[in-house]
Each structure stands twice: as C-alpha cells, then as structure tokens.
Amino acid sequence: MTKSENLWNHLISTLWFVPMFIVLAGVILGFAFVGIDYFIDEKLGYYPQMFGIEPSGAKDLLAVIASSTITIAVTTFSITIVALTLASTQFSPRILRNFMRDTGNQIVLGVLVGIFGYCIIVLRTIRESGAGNDYGYVPAVSVMFGIILGFAAIAALIYFIHHVAISIQATTIISLIADETLTEIKKNFPVRDYEDDIDEQASKLLASDEFLEINANGTGYLQNADAHEIVNLAVKYDLLIKLKRKIGQFTIEEMPILQVFSYNKEIKPNFEMIEEISSNYEIDNYRTVEGDVAFGLRQIVDIALKALSPAVNDTTTGVICVNYLTAILYELAKRPSCPNFFHKDGKVRFVMEQQGFEDYFDLGFNQIRQNAGGNVTIILVQMNSLRILCTINSSLSFEPERLKRHLLLETQARLLFKLAEDTVNIDEDLKTISRYYQNIQESLNRKK
Predict the structure, then answer these.
(1) What is the arrangement of strands in the sheet containing 239-243, beginning at the earlier edge strand?
(2) How does pLDDT run across 155-205, given as a tens digit for each residue?
(3) Residue whose C-alpha is closest to residue 211's, from 237, 233, 235, 241
(4) pLDDT at 48
C-alpha cells in the first residue's frame, strides 16, 4: 500500500474529514443560492412578499432551522459517543475505528452541520424594511431551499436512529469487519501459485554481517510498508533491503527495523539514502485492516472471546464469529501466501516476511478453542469449519504449501477432539463430536 493510500485511509477513518467537506458544500450552496436570488432580482424583479415571506418571518424561519439542526447535530454526536462506548464494552475496544469511519455516521453529522452553515450564510443577506429601503430584501429562493433542507435534517435524524440501531447489533459489526477483511484479501493476495525463491547471491548477502541497520522512527505498530517504492529505491542504489518486522507487529523507537545490504561494494549508504528509504514505512499507535489482514481476524476473535467469557456466556455470538472467521480463512485457503521476496532486474531487492496461512489459521482457531471447553456448540461449529477448510485445501495445487496446511488442519482437529474428551461429560454429545471428527478425518484422507 502506498503512502497516499495509507493517508487516505487515515483521513476517512476520522469523524471530521467527510463532515468538513459537507459543511463546506453547505456554505458554497448558501452563496450560490443567494447569487441566484440577486440575479432574479436584477433581471426580473420581485418583492419580499414572494411566496408570502416577509423579512422578519424569513429570519425567524431560518433561525429556527439553524438552531434545530445544530441541536440535532449535538444529539447525533451524543448518540454516536454512546454507541461507541457500548460497542467498546460489549464487544471489543478494537472495533471503535469501524464506527468512526462509518460513512452513514459521517454523512449525517456533515449534513446537519452543513445545513446550519447554509442558514447562517443566507441569514446575513436578509434586510428588514426601513429608511432608504421601503420593502426590505428577502432571498426567497434561498429561503425556500432552506425549508427543504430543514425537512432533509428530519430525514437525516430518522435515518441516523435506524442506522445506529442496526450498526450496534453483533451480526452487523462482525459482518462489516469480515467484509472489510475479505476485500483486503481479494485486493492484495495472489491468485496464482508461484515459487517464492531466493537466488544464491541474495542468500549469501543476507547471511553476511555486512549490512547497515536502520532504526525505527517511532514506537507503535508497523502499519504500512510501500514495497513498490522500496524496490525502486533498491534498484536505484543497487541494494537489497530487509524489513525485520511484519506488518501489524509492534516496534520500539531506535530498535532496528530495516537492514540494508549493498550488491555493489563501492556504493555506501549515506544519510540521504537512509532518509529516503525510511520514508516508505509508517508506524502509528493502532493497527488497521488495510495491509494487515490479521487485524481483521483479531477483532472477530476478540468479540468471540468476550462472548464466550463466563460473565457474558453468549454462545450464539461466538457461533457467528466462528462462521465469519471460516469465511475469511476459506478465502485465504484458496490462495497461496504472499511472497516474502520481491525481485526486479534479476535480483532480490526487498525481503519482507509476511503473515502466512498458518499465522491466520492459528489466530482464528487457537484462542477460541482454548476458551471453548465444555461448550459443545462451539466445538461442533469449529469442527465443521475445519471440514470446510479441508475441502478447499485439497484443491490447492502448490504441493508444499498444501501439505503444510494439511498438517495444520489435522493437528487442530485432534486438539479439538481431545478438548471434547476432557471437558464434555455427556456421552451422546461425545458421540456427535466423534462423528464430526470422523468426517474431518475422511476429508483429510482424500488427498494428502
């Protein structure tokens, strides 16, 4: 992901960026409609009584609309804060960013404050009748459009209440996280098999101790590394660059984050070169799904763990989480893992260790299994998920990775069955779990 793409994701995840532009649009509309009124006045001529609106009445009307919309805006903001607090305590604090970047919330806040801005611009143009101005002045078209915007504010409030009522439901939250994660997988993960290899020259270079270490420029999570730009810089200076942290991992300021190797011993990395390379990764105090699919899985797993805790004991939400985790892992299972080595001009230019299927699989299964002792429903749902993943894994044509994933699935199924034997005390339930386990074994044995 490029720096500009990462910056855009940051901006649209705030509660001020989209509303700011809508408010600006409201102000521009105010000036535009006032201009239309002046044009009509100059070309055609009309009186304050047009549409039955007097200057004092027009002022009162716009003032009521302006005060009402800003009051509604404060109310919607308060509701948003309450929804954020509720979602944070009931599900996971890591999902707050999803609420903040919700387009519906941002547009409603922007529309309400934008209507306020429009009314303020139009109000300043209304003149009462008096000395030297027998009739006063009312921008009638602008006022009528303000009335329309007043009804739009009512519609926005009704929509917002409906939207919040839906958005705080567990199924909606989990499905939105899953959709965002699936979109990221389809965007960035390869669809064809490949050999993620490294040549002998690069291998010797990486094994040597002749490299320059670049320290992290901040403390936090590695959000993004622009692989394309780093590769171009490596070609420009004839380098091999290695990123020592995975996207989404925590790093500490002044700890080594990059290693720079030179193919040409005559080229020595200098300060400008280091600054240029360092500008292509970003560290922040939170993780994002963009470029970090594991964070999408992490959010859903956190919701599942909260649901399975003794204090909540919400098995249904846990089942929903496992189902959506299965959908994400299913999409990952159809694809080979992302490459660790980036080549250009016949050389390895950039080494970035990336999360593999085993990392995502362990994240999506282990903690939920560890907290599912005695919960027959969760054990059965996880076993069903394993059976689905076994089926899709058998179609992966890249043999080494398929066999590696086969072992993961086999191990997880065995651990689930052992958990059931240790924690489930009812024989009939054990028989059902045993039947599911046998189905998994049959799926695994079809193609090893």
Answers:
(1) 212-215, 256-262, 239-243, 347-352, 341-344
(2) 999 999 898 888 888 899 999 999 999 999 998 887 665 556 778 888 888
(3) 241
(4) 46
**Mean pLDDT throughout 216-230?**
90
Tell me which amino acid residue 361 is.
F
Q: Give phi and psi for 214, each to the nearest 5.
A: -110, 125
Predicted pLDDT of residue 447 = 58
- Residue 6, pLDDT above cutoff 80: no
CB 270 within 8 A of CB 277: no
Rounded to the nearest 10°, the torsion over CA 105, 106, 112, 117 is 170
In whole numbers, what is the pLDDT of the chain averaged over residues?
Answer: 87
* Helical (H) or strand (E) element with 282: strand 281-284
Residue 218 · residue 245 · CB < 8 Å: no
Residues 95 and 440: their CA atoms lie apart, in Å, by: 33
Confidence at residue 52, expressed as pLDDT on a 0 to 100 scale: 58
What are the residues facing 220 on neighbouring strands?
251
pLDDT given at position 443: 86
Cβ neighbours of 239 (radius 10 Å): 25
Q: Give yes or no for a contact between 84 and 109, defined as CB atoms under 8 angstroms apart.
A: no
pLDDT for the residue numbered 132: 55
Query: Where is pLDDT greater, at 346 or 376?
Result: 376
Structure tokens at 420: 């059931």
For residues 268 and 262, the answer to whether their CB atoms sit within 8 Å is: yes
For residue 281, the cross-strand partners are: 225
Give Cβ neighbours of residue 46 (< 8 Å, ≥ 6 apart): 40, 140
Using only C-alpha atoms, what is the Rg of the chain? 30
Three-state DSSP at 285 gives coil
- Residue-wise DSSP of 38-104: HHHHHHT---TTGGG--HHHHHHHHHHHHHHHHHHHHHHHHHHHHHHHHHHHHT-GGGHHHHHT-HH
Q: Where are the alpha helices (DSSP H) in 189-292?
A: 200-207, 227-237, 271-278
pTM score of the predicted model: 0.86
H/E stretch holding 243? strand 239-243
For 46-74, how does the pLDDT look when each residue is reduced to its tens digit (9 = 90+)? 554 455 567 888 889 999 999 999 998 88
pLDDT of residue 2: 67
Check if the beta carbon of residue 356 is closer than 8 Å to that of residue 211.
no
What distance in Å separates the CA atoms of residue 233 and residue 342, rounded to the nearest whole number? 13
pLDDT score at 66: 93
263-to-208, 211, 260, 432 alpha-carbon distances in Å: 12, 11, 10, 60
In DSSP terms, 224 is beta-bridged to 282
3-state secondary structure at position 213? strand
